[in-house]
Amino acid sequence: MSESVPPVPFTASDVERLEDECLYQGFFRLERRTLRHRMYEGGWSDRVIREVHVRHDAVGVLLYDPERDAVVMVEQIRAGALDDAISPWKIEVVAGLIEAGESPADVARREAQEEAGCEIGELIELYTYYPSPGACNERVTLFCGLIDSRGMGGIHGLDEEHEDIRVHVLGFLQAKALLDAGRLDNAMSLIAFQWLAAERASLRARR
Length: 207
Description:
Blueprint: E1 15-25, E2 29-37, E3 48-54, E4 58-65, E5 70-77, E6 89-92, E7 94-97, H1 104-116, E8 123-129, E9 140-146, E10 154-156, E11 165-171, H2 172-180, H3 187-205
């Protein structure tokens, strides 16, 4: 017997947004939000003040070649990891931000071409999630894109976005070894690989 999904206790209508103040506006936006919300024990909270990083929603796509049991990943410097003890260059799945008028699937295919020179065949939607809802409003839609990895590799990216992206074609077991060693240390890669580990056999059986 399957477990039933518990009901949602509160919705956006149970929040009173008193003020949204812009603290900084650049490529991203920082807001100070003042609010009140209903409480589990009844009644309303006091005024709550939180700073929120406001940014575009994003897409990640794990590129997988079932014929060769290989994944294609990208490596580039990340400003948020400059203090990383090993390296600020991170190996990740292809990813990008959703611009006005784009669907997540559109972004997955565009970024695969821009970052890895890759055409995606079948595109499988996995999950949509908040990476850090306590501090950021961003939602990520994660995909697996089925590809032919023959001839892939090299350096890619857009000059106007200052991208310097190295493309890796890795056998699944090689990529899994990087994961186990802590080298694939971002949420998109961790979540996508957990899905691929469960679905890899069925994907390969469809060849």
